[in-house]
Design goal:
By secondary structure, the chain is α+β, with helices and mostly antiparallel strands. It has one domain: Winged helix-like DNA-binding domain superfamily/Winged helix DNA-binding domain (Arc Repressor Mutant, subunit A). It contains four helices and three strands. Strands 1-3-2 form a three-stranded antiparallel beta sheet. The protein is elongated. It starts with a helix and ends with a strand. 12% of the residues are buried. The mean pLDDT is 91.
Length: 101
Amino acid sequence: MTVEDTAKAQAGAKSALKTLRERRGGVPRELLDANKETVKTRKAVIDALAGGPKTALQIAAQTGLPSQTVFWHLMSMKKYGKVAEGEADGDYFTYGLVEEK
């Protein structure tokens, strides 16, 4: 594939996306709001962990978020390598941020 072919393909894809956005009316407000809330919650969890490893209950107490919400975010962050499970603190494991390489 030549450079011109690649440029034509990219232009065609951009045009198709523009047409789709016009037909659908953009991104629904509910989806934008839900994403904004997820980002806000994730930032609160990360900020709480910046001071060192904590349990889900400790993070919930510090952030004011429901413990099940904190736990859900911790599990998704663990799945993608953003946090690591540490030592047990009583009945709960601690979680800490993973340093990015």
